[in-house]
Amino acid sequence: xxxxxxxxxLNHPIALVFGCTLLGAAAQVFMKMGAIGLSRSAPLQLLTNxxxxxxxxxxxxxxxxxVLALRRGQLSILYPVIALTYxxxxxxxxxxxxxxxxxxxxxxxxxxxGGVGILGTENSTKPESESGDAEEPELASVSARExxxx
Amino acid sequence: xxxxxSSVILVIIASFIGSFGAVFLKSxxxxxxxxxxxxxxxxxxxxxxxAFLLSSVFFVAGVKNGQLSVLYPMASLxxxxxxxxxxxxxxxxxxxxxxxxxxxxxxxxVFIGLGDR
Lengths: 150, 117
What we know:
The complex is a heterodimer of chains A (150) and B (117). With 150 residues, chain A is mainly α. Chain A is 69% helix and 0% strand. Chain A has helices at residues 2-10, 13-36, 50-72, 79-82, 84-96, 103-118, 136-149. Chain B is an all-alpha fold. Helices cover 79% and strands 0% of the residues of chain B. The chains are: A mainly alpha (150), B mainly alpha (117). At the A-B interface, helix 2, helix 3, helix 5 and helix 6 of A face helix 1, helix 3, helix 4, helix 5 and helix 6 of B.
């Protein structure tokens, strides 16, 4: 069952990119944790900075997922899902680093997420494609076919 | 806690370098084969990873001070750069939606910056 699941995920760039957003958001948080502990006077501490190294590892795995996804889909198609990373990072920043949220920042975040999301919507044959999640696998399969045609 | 301008600049530099990472990864991914050995000769893939690593150095230096919830969305400037490279190197079409997306990203970043003041 698990090998079948892996095959399904590998064949669906959207699922890969979704995993990429979760890992990517966690990576940012660990990198920030590690960065706080960095000092200019002792650069070798970098090698024992566990949060930073763990953040980099997550970032690496997330990048691997992205490579596999890009292989199937057009660079710009996968953006709507990647935009979720901004939401995860903001939620985690508020929970872990006690960062503040206000209306202006919230509006800004929503506009950025919408902007990143809209970048990949132009290849859809349906005009209202930006509204639903259910449309995304279709978008992806369209792009995957385009990829093999080229 | 206000985010220093120096952190914002470092993240913008990181986004610029990182956008080249995406370009190299895309051209590297197109060459991927089933054989593991072919990964070693895939120079665009290596260049992509190198660009992301270099970009992350600037990013880590940037997020050391200031808020992650302010700085991380600013890394989305990378999409603006990537759009330019997609057009130049992969001849992907520039459509109305992409222009709207870029305008929204830039507007959103300004809002987040203002919200932090």
